[in-house]
Amino acid sequence: MTGELNTLFAIIMSVVFVNNFVVARFLGLCPFLGVSQKTESALGMGMAVTFVMTLASAVTWFLYNYVLLPGESNLLGLMLPGVKETGTVDVLKTISYILVIATLVQFVETVMKKTSPALYESLGIYLPLITTNCAVLGVALLGTTNAPQHLNLLEASVQGFGAGIGFLIAMLLMSGIRERLALLNVPQSFRGVPIAFVCTALMALAFMGFSGMVSW
Amino acid sequence: MLAGVKELKSFNGGIHPPFDGKSLSKNKEITQAPLPEVAYLYMSQHIGVPAKPVVAKGDVVKKGQKIGEAPALVSAHIHATVAGKVTDITFKPHPVTGARTQVVVIQREGDDEWAPGLDEPQDVEAMSPDDIRNLIREAGTVGLGGAAFPTHVKLSPPKDKKVDAVILNGAECEPYLTCDYRLLMEKTKEVIEGLKIIMKCLGCKNAYVGIEANKPDAYDKVRSAVGEDPHIKVELLEVKYPQGAEHQLIKAILGREFKPTQLPIEAGAVVHNVSTTYAIYEAVKYKRPLIQRVVSITGDGVENPNNLLVRIGTPIEPLLKAARLKEDANKVIYGGPLMGIAQPSIADAVTVKGTGGLLVMRNAGEWQSRACIRCGKCVDACPYGLNPSLLSILCESEHFQQAMEFNLMECKECGCCTYVCTSRRPIVHLIKTAKYELARQKARAQEAQKAKEAQKAQAAPAVTATAPK
Amino acid sequence: MSNAQEKVLLVTTSPHIRGPEDIPRVMWTVVGALAPAGLVGVYLFGYYALFIVILSVLAAVLTEAVIQKYLLGQPVSVKDGSAVITGILLAYILPPGVPWYIPIVGAIFAIAIVKHAFGGLGNNIWNPALAARAFLQVAYPAPINSDWRVLKQGGIFSNITGVDSITQASPLFKEFGGKTYNYTDLLTGNVPGCIGETSAIALILGGLYLIYRGYVDWRVPAGYIATVFILAKFLPAKIEAPWANDPIYHVLAGGLMLGAFFMATDMVTSPLTKKGLLVFGIGCGVLTTLIRFYAAYPEGVCYSILLMNTATPIIDRYTQPRLLGQGKK
Q1: In a domain, A48, yes or no
Q2: Using H for helix, E for strand and C for coil, what is the string for B328-371?
């Protein structure tokens, strides 16, 4: 039990701080730069991504273990016996994951449009673009590999959730910085995206301090 | 704290400049200034609606005669401060607001004689609160600490608000100014009498006198003048600017807080400063309108700083000359160094009711402003709990709406932030500009709205007119 | 009225007086407060350390002057001392034996990228010296990690004789076999380390003077040091050394004193309000201990302060001062 808890803790520390998807793996930079001008929308985006990442990790875990992997447990194998031997990892992995993510994003979009129209407006195009957010696909892929080790459902979901929180934290920090920079006299040539990239780089430097903290 | 040493009452934030300049004029007794040959009386020397002239060019007026009538409740009458002849009614830029304002010009003539019915001892005991209020209103009394809020309004609290403390503000926290201190020293009894009149007018049993700890002699004088009266407490306050601002004074003495934009009545208190209280005494006890006040003429730009009893509307040039203006004096300020208003010209300026000091500075320069380095000193110094650093940045980059979210409108412009600013940023200036800009935007929006409505109103009858066809 | 000679009067908005503090005064005082630690460093590591400090300062000042004059067309403000501080701080956190180009590259990065790309003094989000150090760590790992000059013969009190033939980056060297130093050595600075970080006493004296002058808020160093002290005592350490859970050792060794008094307290990159500063100090302490205990680097001061710099705008956002009369009757 404590072993399992330790593993979960290590996973969270890893994806939130040590291998933060944005500032250590440089995934999901598009929404990271696109929606981080205002803290409110950054928080909304972060939460939406967290939600999608958590569910996507869980759903794709099922897909991976019961549809994609070869073996007795492959449900497709019930119909197509050949699949039991080969699995469908090579053929279906990416496309089925994107399908799952797109569905989830559509769901979030519908809910958000209904419950929080202001946030929906402020996120704009970046909300549907979560579909193509490589961080989401990335966490799904990371949760469903056999290397370094095969994750169980809980671990994969926790990893998805942690990655979302890591994304949220990076968004929050970045939005604070950009809100401040928006008021200051940044040189003309650096204004906007250039300085945001400089900030991302310096944030990445700062986050290097965590490296080696957990061996996950 | 040493045992036996009473802890000084105080508030959060504020500043204490190392040299407060009080020593220049502190020990100079109040003397009567020579009467002006020509008095210039602005019709707006108070917060609120300007007064309307009730005299015409060529009229002969007596001292104390009403020459400007207050057209609304929040306004104040204006009286002739010298006997003479009205030579002109014109418009001139106001020394405090800068706006072009109506002025009645009186050429002094004949004896300095009071108008009939004035300058007569009154029976205060027999007066009702309304009688007192009326006398004060008739006398044109306004707050003489600088803001010039009509005094009778302050003495007419709304029915649903209770006043349980009257505070006599003897803090005089602005550096250099000594007019209130001199009054406390020389007219102690009269000022305390004035305080009792205010208490009677408000039906309030408790009063406090707040005096900064750098005026122990005034404290002793007031203590002995108050005597055994159990309802008046005399409090020593920490020497800190803006100790004499209403919010800070009430926080220090009563421990109560209220928002910067609220009036002291929200905390159940009414604050009057020493000069105002003395004017109230004169108005109620002797029926003398507000025609003169004590003005400190001080600063390193004059050889001979002094405290003068000056008729309102007196040109400042002879006053400064009499105090021996120095060659290199290059800044003349109405009021103290922290909230005072710099004058563009010595020759054109005349005193108004709110002028408690003429501060003359020499070799005054401007400061090179840099980007905010976030030292945080302004946040610590702000006595109102604002974030001047952020406000200055927001105002500078013209994010006015965001500035409003950070309480731009709550700023009282006391100047503490700007005084301490390491980057020498003109924070108060930026805030003032932003407020001005917002007011202009609002006015423009209102005008557009009006125009729209007018258009609608015009369009509507047109429809009805065409309908029968 | 108008016959008198008209004086030219200066018209400005209130207030008409200013306090005694301005940027040059603050900055040059900080330079003065940093001097003792540097003197110890030079005494300890020899004149080459002084050479590094001078190179770093010159590079920082020149970079600033060139950028302001030729790229931005601004008035050159190197006299205010802020570039000098960046140069000194950068040199102080470099190993005493680094090649000559390291401080130059670092200072250029600090001033050009971390400071002036953001708009110059007051606008930078990260402490330029620390960001430059983190950059150098990535860009030049070999010289940064291995060029540790051996201690000059005889320490301050000459109680070590001979020279460690293989010296180490810091008294916090984690791997087993790292040398342990006693408190006196850590206090006086008779230990290996970066140029300006060794002598805790010199740094504390400088820091206390800055607190006395009001340029440093005590909440940052106090929050920082106290947090490290407490966490070092109670967190399970993953370090195999006799001092693993010795809080005094953790507080005195490495760059903590330099960081707590001179780097974390940098006005520009730390929060504005007192509440925010306390949060900032504690945050630095937590991160420093975590990095020292669990991460790959022996020292966590640099990264922890950079991380808290990153969080400063957000801390500011949630620690606004309370408006008078709000939320209180």
Answers
A1: yes
A2: CEEEEEECCCCCCEECCCCCCCECCCCCCEEEEEECCCCCCCCC
Q: In this complex, is the C-beta atom of B406 within 8 Å of any C-beta atom belonging to chain C?
A: yes
Q: Give the pLDDT band of residue C184 (cuts 50, 70, 90).
A: confident
Residue of chain C with shortest Cα separation from B389: C272
Q: Domain containing A161: what range?
A: 28-174
Give the confidence band of C329 by pLDDT, cuts at 50, 70, 90.
very low
Residues of chain C positioned with their CB less than 8 A from the CB of B18:
20
Among A176, A177, A191, residue whose Cα is nearest residue A40 = A176
Domain-embedded: residue B175 = yes
- Residue A190's pLDDT band, with cuts at 50, 70 and 90, is very high
Residue B133 and residue B156: Cα distance in Å, rounded?
8
Kindly list the residues from chain A whose CB atom is less than 8 angstroms away from the CB atom of residue B395: none
Do B383 and B352 lie in one domain? The reply is no
C161 has pLDDT over 60: no
If asked whether residues C222 and C287 sit together in one domain, one would say yes
CB contact under 8 A, A183 and B371: no
With an 8 Å Cβ cutoff, are B343 and C20 in contact? no
Number of domains in chain C: 2
The stretch B414-429 carries a mean pLDDT of 96
What per-residue confidence (pLDDT) applies to C176? 44
Measured over the CA atoms of residue B401, residue B407, residue B411 and residue B416, the dihedral's sign is: negative
Residue A166 placed within a domain: yes
Are A195 and C131 inside 8 Å of each other by CB?
Answer: no
Query: Which among C119, C125, C304 has CB closest to A187?
Result: C119
Which residues of chain A have a Cβ shorter than 8 Å from any chain C Cβ? 39, 172-173, 176-177, 179-181, 184-187, 190, 195, 198-199, 202-203, 205-214
In a domain? residue B441: no
Q: Token pair for residue B8? A: 């000084």
Q: What is the bridge-based pairing of β-strands B52-53 and B165-170?
A: unpaired
Closest chain C residue to the Cα of B20, Cα to Cα = C17
Q: Which residues of C touch B393 (CB under 8 A)?
A: none
Contact B394 A185 (CB under 8 A): no
Query: Which residue matches tokens 């403000």?
Result: C77
Same domain, B224 and B300: no
C325:B258 CB<8 A: yes
- Residue C264 CB neighbours (<10 A): 30
Please name every residue paired with B68 in a beta bridge, in sequence order, or none if there are none: B53, B78
Query: Chain B residues with CB inside 8 Å of A185's CB?
Result: 371
Condensed to tens digits (0 to 9), the pLDDT of residues B157-168 reads: 988 888 999 999
Averaged pLDDT score across all residues of chain B: 92
DSSP 3-state assignment of B85?
strand
Are B213 and B350 contained in the same domain?
Answer: no
Contact C314 A173 (CB under 8 A): yes
Name the residue range of residue C236's domain: 197-316
Looking at the domain assignment, is residue C183 inside a domain? no
Q: Please answer whether residues B305 and B299 qualify as being in contact, where contact means their C-beta atoms are separated by less than 8 angstroms.
A: yes
- Give residue B79's pLDDT band: very low, low, confident or very high (50, 70, 90): very high
- Whether residue B453 lies inside any domain: the answer is no
Residue C158's pLDDT is 34
- Whether residue B399 and residue A184 make contact (CB cut-off 8 A), yes or no, is no
Domain that holds residue B409: 377-436
Q: Clarify whether residues B127 and B99 are in a common domain.
A: no
Question: Looking at this predicted complex, what is its ipTM?
Answer: 0.90
- Contact between A185 and B393 using a beta-carbon 8 Å cutoff: no
Q: Which of B373, B428, B429 lies at the smallest CB-CB distance from C121?
A: B373
Q: What is the pLDDT of residues B80-133, one digit of tens each?
A: 999 999 999 999 999 998 899 999 999 999 888 899 999 999 999 999 999 999
pLDDT tens digits, residue range C241-250? 778 888 998 9
